[in-house]
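Example 3.2
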Amino acid sequence: MPAPLLYESHSHTPLCKHAHGEPAEYAAAAIQRNLRGIIFTCHCPLPDGFSAGVRMAPGEYDHYVELIARTRAEFAGRLDVRLGLESDYYPGVESWLEKLHARVPLHHVLGSVHPQIADYRARYFTGDAFAYQVTYFEHLAQSAETKLYDTLAHPDLIKNEFPAEWDFARIQPHIERALDRIAATGVAMELNTSGVNKALPEINPSRTILTMMLARGIPVVIGADAHRPARVGDGYVSALETLRGVGFTEISHFLERKRHATPISEALASLK
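Structure, written as tokens:
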């Protein structure tokens, strides 16, 4: 078996109320996939009960930190287990997140705009699907500009909200402007393999957007968005081959909030 090189950079715990399986089960799955490590990035607590039904409560954050620390100790010498966070962005939440991220050392902070969440929809959806798509990409660019995040998760997630209304040619100028702004910040973007299981069954982001990211020099982090152990590292080979086909030569991950790059050729070899 080749030496493990890659990390699962996007995985959850039952604290988010919609993931299944204990962290130790996710870690064991990472070993089975011949990964070097796993970074838990469970959904962060948010203020004022915002989307409370699909994330840990503010009072559970310390428990989350302890849970991952115990898992790290349990797998020491077998798998590199790290603590991260998936933090939602919407205008006005910046101060809350800045304080949350500073409480304990984190290895990877994912920025997410979740248009499917009822509380987000209630604030920003006016009944016009295209306007909602425009708002999504505006918020995605704003999230990068806050400097709160290392990587932007599933960056075209909005396409699954109104799949029949997804007209790429129409939204493309807004995506391009968002990518220009993101590239200027140096923030990475995620290739999320879970997109193949959504309403529009393709990776997030699409191959077309990946090509646009490559042209702007935006680094890519791979993650499966695992909400159950069997999804850890799922789809990595296909996703890496897609990246190579687009023209990328390396894949990234974050440790201690610093980006590390691995040649895609070596990454693929480590999974086979």
